Amino acid sequence: MQVMTIHQAKGLEFPVVVLGAAMDGRLPTKARKDRYEIPYAMRASGKPEAEDTHLIDERKLFYVAVTRARDLLIIGTADKVKKRGGGPSPFVKEMLGEDLENAANLTQARIDKVISPGEVEREPRKRFSYGELAYFQQCPMRYKFASVYGFEANWTDPVGFGANVHRVLEAMHQRILEGHIPEGAEVPEIIDEVWISSRTVDEEREHEFRSAAEAQIKRYLQEHGETLERVRGAEGYFDYPLEGYVLNGKFDLLRAAGDGGGVEVVDFKTSSFVHLETFGIDLQLDLYALGVERDLAKEVQERTVHFLRDGQVHSIKWTPERKESAIDRLKSELECISMEDYTPNTKYCKHCDEFSRICAYSVHREEGVVHA
């Protein structure tokens, strides 16, 4: 955008020109009379052809201003201005007629025909994390209790063991990305740096958890040291759209795939092995693989879950067929959520520690009574 006087605009052309103050007293300005007027009979030029030469000059300036526009001319005026000016410029009325309001309405109608209406304002898209979708997959009633009703489950990890182990893994992988592969002897030092103690756990018990974390990390280093040079990312966030929703998550680790092409998405669990489909871990790996490909633009070759307590590792190839199946599965679950279809999955009851005592459909309540 350029701001200039009308004189500066002479000879130039612009796609859009805004003439901001076309008001009487500004355009045209009031003529300044000489302190001592010389009669025309005494002037060599004689009497001019027009009585008001100043108005003629100002009209010429107005013509220059309005003809600088190639595509669009916007004229600003006002009925009343406190300091200077008294209503619209007479030149505007000469140009558009006395009824300026009607002229403005006609102009606006023409503009409305050619401008784009723009995007329709929409509500923010609902976001889903792996945890929410896993709840729905395990049992839609669990999702309803946790995400719809907002019930908070009992905290089963008072010491924050899982979160602390993941912090240690992140710190260790960051060192690897910086060019240093830690050895087992460095693990206690890393634990001291990142461990967050719990106020509700006594010192002896916390020491036991620290020792357990140290054992898990050292075992990982010892048994999978050959994979550490392939680390390409740690604790990365992603989000991507799907079916009008946004799916988001945070992967634990990215490694270069063993064959040298693409990456391997790795998720760590501090537990022993559990059935992947029953607990929604396969869904987690699918969601993460899609996130890494769609948001981070990395080609995924393999998805791996590593159970640190017993050392079991399960890897699944990320094939086009698996990707298509994962997308269909996620779409189906999102559709059920949007339709508020919370049909319970009673096969999961024996694993549901959070809501089994309050769920009317639970078959694993203390009294052993099955509720329909």
Describe this structure in words.
With 372 residues, the chain is of the alpha/beta class. It folds into two domains: 14-114, Double Stranded RNA Binding Domain, CATH 3.30.160; 155-341, Lambda Exonuclease, Chain A, CATH 3.90.320.10. The protein has ten helices and eight strands. The strands form two sheets. Strands 3, 4, 5, 6, 7 and 8 form a six-stranded mixed sheet that branches. The chain has a two-stranded parallel ribbon with strand order 1-2. The protein starts with 13 loop residues before the first strand and ends in a 34-residue tail after the last helix.
Helix content: 25-40%
Largest sheet: 6 strands, mixed
Number of helices: 10
**Which fold name corresponds to the CATH topology of the largest domain?**
Lambda Exonuclease, Chain A
The strand count comes to: 8
What structural category do the secondary elements indicate?
alpha/beta
* Assembly level: single chain
Question: Beta-sheet strand percentage?
Answer: 15-25%
CATH class identity of the largest domain: Alpha Beta
User: What spatial form do the alpha-carbon principal axes imply?
Assistant: elongated
What's the order of the H and E elements?
A: EHEHHEHHHHHEEEHEEH
Taking all Cα atoms into account, the compactness measure Rg is 37 Å
Q: Provide the low-confidence segments as ranges.
A: 366-372
How many angstroms does the end-to-end distance come to? 70 Å
For the record, the CATH architecture of the largest domain stands as Alpha-Beta Complex
The average pLDDT is 85
Count the domains.
2
